[in-house]
C-alpha cells in the first residue's frame, strides 16, 4: 500500500479527491450521504514550526497551544465552520465511543486537550453544525456515515492497533445501529490515510496476536495491514464491502502527512466530519 500521491485523483481508485482550499490541501470523501461532509487534512498550510510543521491540530504533542488554536481556526474558516463548535475527545487508544447528543457538549475539546469525552477514541452524532475532529499520525481515521430514519448520522473513529484489537470500529458501528436504528448495509465508511503494510513492522508476538484477531490476510510476516483489519471488522458488523472506501496513502511514506513511526516527535493531521 506504500503510496505518495501527487495528483488530484484518489490512489484507491474512487471515493475521494484532493482539494486545494486557500492555503490548505485537503482530501474530501465523495461517497457520504447527502447532508454529511467528510474531510481528511494534510500537514500543509498551517503556522506551526518544526517538528510540528505546519497544520498541527493536536494539543498534546508539545506544540504551542496558540499555534494549534490558529491551525484549527484556519481549518474551520476554510470549511465554513465555527472553531468554537469543534468537538474533540481525549484520545487514549481505547475502544470507547461517545454519543454527542446534547448541544451543551458541542465544542468540548475545542480549546485544549481537556475534553468531556475522556477517555474516548470515537464520537458520533446526529446533531447538525456539530463538527467532530479527531487527530492522527499513523493510526487509522475511520468515518462512518449513514441516513437514519430521523436524518443523517456520522461518527469519527481513531483506530490504532490497540484500538482495533479492542474493537473500536465494531463499537462505533454497533452504537450507530442500536441508537439510531441505522441499517448496517446502508453505512458508508471512509478509511483515511494511515501507516501502510509497507511500513508498519512489529514484533513476532504482536503480529501473531493480530493475525489471530483479524486473520492471516491482515499480517505479512512482521508487517501489519491496518486497512485489512479495519475492513474485516466493518464487514463483520454487516457493512457491505462496496460501501467501504480506502484512501490508499501511507502516512509513513508520504511527507504530506504526519507519521509518529517515521519522525517520532511530530504533529497530528485530522479527520473532520459534520452534518449540515
Low-confidence stretches: none
Structural domain count:
1
Find the count of extended strands (DSSP E, 2+ residues).
13
Strand content: 15-25%
The proportion of residues forming helix, as a percent range, comes to 10-25%
Strand and helix order = EEEHEEEEEHHEHEEHEHE
Specify the biggest β-sheet.
Answer: 6 strands, mixed
Oligomer: single chain
Report the end-to-end length measured between terminal Cα atoms.
33 Å
CATH architecture: 4-Layer Sandwich
Shape: globular
Q: Which fold name fills CATH's third level, the topology?
A: CNF1/YfiH-like putative cysteine hydrolases
Q: State the CATH superfamily name.
A: CNF1/YfiH-like putative cysteine hydrolases
What does this 3D model show about the protein?
The protein has 276 residues and is of the alpha+beta class. It has a single domain (22-275), classed as CNF1/YfiH-like putative cysteine hydrolases (4-Layer Sandwich). It is built from six helices and 13 strands. The strands form three sheets. The protein has a six-stranded mixed β-sheet with strand order 4-5-8-7-9-12. Strands 1-2-3-13-6 form a five-stranded antiparallel β-sheet. Strand 10 (219-220) and strand 11 form a beta hairpin. It is globular, with a radius of gyration of 17 Å. It starts with 15 loop residues before the first strand and ends with a strand. The mean pLDDT is 96.
Amino acid at each position: 500500500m506504500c503510496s505518495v500521491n501527487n495528483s488530484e485523483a484518489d490512489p484507491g481508485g474512487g471515493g475521494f479527491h484532493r482539494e486545494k482550499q486557500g492555503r490548505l490541501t485537503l482530501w474530501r470523501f465523495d461517497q457520504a450521504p447527502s447532508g454529511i461532509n467528510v474531510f481528511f487534512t494534510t500537514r500543509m498550510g498551517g503556522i506551526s514550526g518544526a517538528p510540528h510543521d505546519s497544520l498541527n491540530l493536536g494539543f498534546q504533542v508539545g506544540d504551542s497551544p496558540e499555534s494549534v488554536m490558529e491551525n484549527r481556526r484556519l481549518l474551520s474558516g476554510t470549511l465554513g465552520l465555527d472553531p468554537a463548535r469543534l468537538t474533540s475527545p481525549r484520545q487514549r487508544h481505547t475502544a470507547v465511543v461517545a454519543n454527542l447528543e446534547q448541544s451543551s457538549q458541542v465544542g468540548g475539546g475545542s480549546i485544549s486537550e481537556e475534553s468531556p469525552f475522556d477517555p474516548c477514541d470515537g464520537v458520533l452524532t446526529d446533531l447538525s453544525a456539530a463538527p467532530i475532529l479527531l487527530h492522527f499520525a499513523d493510526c487509522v481515521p475511520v468515518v462512518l456515515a449513514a441516513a437514519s430514519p430521523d436524518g443523517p448520522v456520522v461518527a469519527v473513529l481513531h483506530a490504532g492497533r490497540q484500538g482495533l484489537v479492542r474493537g473500536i470500529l465494531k463499537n462505533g458501528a454497533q452504537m450507530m445501529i442500536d441508537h439510531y436504528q441505522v441499517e448496517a448495509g446502508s453505512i458508508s465508511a471512509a478509511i483515511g490515510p494511515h501507516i501502510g503494510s509497507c511500513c508498519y513492522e512489529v514484533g513476532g508476538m504482536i503480529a501473531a496476536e493480530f493475525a489471530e484477531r483479524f486473520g492471516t490476510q491482515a499480517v505479512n510476516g512482521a508487517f501489519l495491514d491496518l486497512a485489512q483489519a479495519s475492513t474485516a471488522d466493518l464487514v463483520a458488523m454487516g457493512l457491505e464491502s462496496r460501501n467501504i472506501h480506502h484512501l490508499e496513502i501511507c502516512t509513513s511514506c508520504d511527507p504530506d502527512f504526519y507519521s509518529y513511526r517515521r519522525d517520532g516527535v511530530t504533529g497530528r493531521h485530522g479527520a473532520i466530519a459534520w452534518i449540515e
